[in-house]
Amino acid sequence: MEKISPSNIKASSHRKKIRISDIVLKSLIFLFSFITIGVLVLILAYVISQGISHINWSFISDIYNANKGKYGIFPMIVNTVLIVLLTVVIAAPVGICSAIYLVEYSKPGKIVSLIRFTTESLAGIPSIIYGIFGFIFFGITMNLKFSLLSGAFTLSIMVLPTIIRTTEESLKAVPISFKEGSLALGATKLTTIARVILPCAIPGILTAVILSVGRIVGETAALIFTFGQGLDIVDSPFRPGSTLSVHLYILSTEGLSLKQAFATATILIIVVALINLASTLVASRIKKLTIGVKDVAGM
């Protein structure tokens, strides 16, 4: 018979403790995941159930003019799309180029540490502070007043930390062998970045843009101070307007119509879902195209 030594008893006890720890950890992970998903489902179900019955074609396609009995949100939908596009056009190139500099060109030191500290600090500033800054600097100092440009510039500063940090991590995730192989074949550093590193990092960069779009669509405080509360479609970058989130805020806080507020919230959820779906499909398509680039670089 096999002798049971103290070391075997300790090893068996240790394995049992590990198994119990694994079970507890997995249970906690499933529990918190279920709670998170459950809260999300409850919020979506409540908002959509309250607002879906008040949505019709007139509500989606008409203008908002209470004096004429019109309560449509079409101008707000258009303004939301416009400010998302303009903000991304301004912030994405700056954020991506900043990340490329930090990863590929900068050397560890006080300046780089200061840049990273500033970027992380910007991510933690409340949106109302951005709104006040945008109102004073872009609206008054630069004389943009309440306008699409003023709102887009303010939101660009808000989403820059997200784009920079996410893009930076995506660039760092590209295998160093890709870069070394390109340089060994005689390519310049700029060519290597443009044709090897960036194509491989595109899925992560698109993720940064998707996260930024989500914040832009849901932003309210900063836009009230910079974009204004206009009810018409913005036909000029220097005109004020109102996005879906701002319009929702006005409807709910001023007691104009709770039914319209829920209907607007439902449309906002649908718009965000469609934007995320489209962005995910584009990212998936580009990721498939970049697989060939990775395979070639890894050969």
Structure notes:
The protein is about 80% helix and about 0% strand. It has helices at about 5-50, 55-60, 75-105, 110-125, 125-140, 150-170, 175-185, 190-220, 220-225, 245-255, 260-299, and strands spanning about 65, 70. It has a two-stranded antiparallel ribbon. The termini are far apart. The relative contact order is 0.13. The model has no long low-confidence stretch (mean pLDDT about 85).
How is the biggest beta sheet arranged?
Answer: 2 strands, antiparallel
Give the name of the CATH architecture of the largest domain.
Orthogonal Bundle
Radius of gyration, CA atoms, in whole angstroms: 25 Å
CATH class category label of the largest domain:
Mainly Alpha
Topology, pairings included?
Blueprint: H1 6-51, H2 57-61, E1 64-65, E2 70-71, H3 74-105, H4 110-123, H5 127-141, H6 148-172, H7 176-184, H8 189-218, H9 221-226, H10 244-253, H11 258-298
Antiparallel strand pairs: 1-2
Helix pairs in contact: 1-11, 3-6, 3-8, 4-6, 5-6, 6-8, 7-8, 8-11, 10-11
Summarize the structure.
The protein has 299 residues and is mainly α. It contains 11 helices and 2 strands, in the order H-H-E-E-H-H-H-H-H-H-H-H-H.
Name the descriptors.
two-stranded antiparallel sheet; single chain; 299 residues; mainly alpha; MetI-like fold; 2 strands; 1% strand; 2 domains
